[in-house]
Amino acid sequence: MHDPLPILEPAEKLLRLRRGRPVRLGSYQISHAMPQGKPVLFAIQNPDDEIQGYHMAGQFYEQEELEIMRRLFRPGGTFFDIGSNVGNHMLYAALHMQAAKVLVVEPNPKAYGVLLANIALNRLAQVVDGRGLGYGMGASDGSGFGVRAGKANLGGGHLVAGDGDIIVTTGDRLAGEIRVDFIKIDVEGMEMDVLSGLTRTIARTRPTLCVEVNDENRGAMDIWAEAHSYRQVTEYRRYRKSENVFLCPAEQDNAGA
């Protein structure tokens, strides 16, 4: 077993929120919306960012994929959000999918600052587990990574070795013994490394998966699914060079998908 991961500053802020203590989170525009008839407050720091632009308009990003997730997720379960960005999927999982716990992972400070504001605004500090804030995910432990992302597309950010002080760890180490029911992976081409780092968690809990798969990794994804006894439920192609692939354990019946 690995030693416990250190709690980084953004996770410590979430812990302070959970304890009812004041936390400085920055300045944001706030959008009050009612998508699908349920109230949500979106924090916006950069309206030109693609996802925050949707939030500015009172909408969730990737609504079609979120609806598929809702159909595949059992209320009361744990949602593991790898590549949480500003918290779009975290908010939907907590508010619309009725997740009892959402475990978030996001290495980019410009993104997880907004995510923390979204947690605070929607009073989700007791639902969201922030131990993964500040960390990157990979096939093994490492350090010295940076994040490169365009100003108008934080969601396109990717880790770069030797370009910063971000620590990379594995999903297995981060999750520990938590029972995980659904894993969403959006890591801009590093999905096979992240899956490799989740081997024990996936074998132990057999979660449903949503993986954004770059076209260049599609063959490797199919091989991985066969080797780990997963079957594809459906897919949704939103982008020219990647698609969101939904998979469940071969032994599981997902007729509602």
Question: How would you portray this structure in words?
Answer:
The protein has 257 residues and is an alpha/beta fold. It has one domain (60-249): Vaccinia Virus protein VP39 (Rossmann fold, 3-Layer(aba) Sandwich). The chain is built from nine helices and 13 strands. The strands form three sheets. It has a seven-stranded mixed beta sheet with strand order 5-4-3-10-11-13-12, with helices on both faces. The longest helix is centred in the middle third of the chain and has 13 residues, at 109-121. The termini are far apart.
- CATH third-tier fold name: Rossmann fold
Structural class: alpha/beta
Strand order in space, largest sheet: 5-4-3-10-11-13-12
- Rg, Cα atoms, Å: 17 Å
Secondary structure layout plus pairing:
Blueprint lengths: L8 H10 L10 E5 L6 E5 L5 H7 L6 H10 L5 E5 L5 H8 L5 E6 L2 H13 L6 E6 L1 E3 L4 E9 L2 E9 L4 E4 L1 H5 L6 E4 L5 H6 L2 H7 L2 E7 L3 H10 L2 E7 L5 E8 L8
Parallel strand pairs: 3-4, 3-10, 4-5, 6-9, 10-11
Antiparallel strand pairs: 1-2, 7-8, 7-9, 11-13, 12-13
What labels describe this entry?
seven-stranded mixed sheet, globular, 257 residues, four-stranded mixed sheet
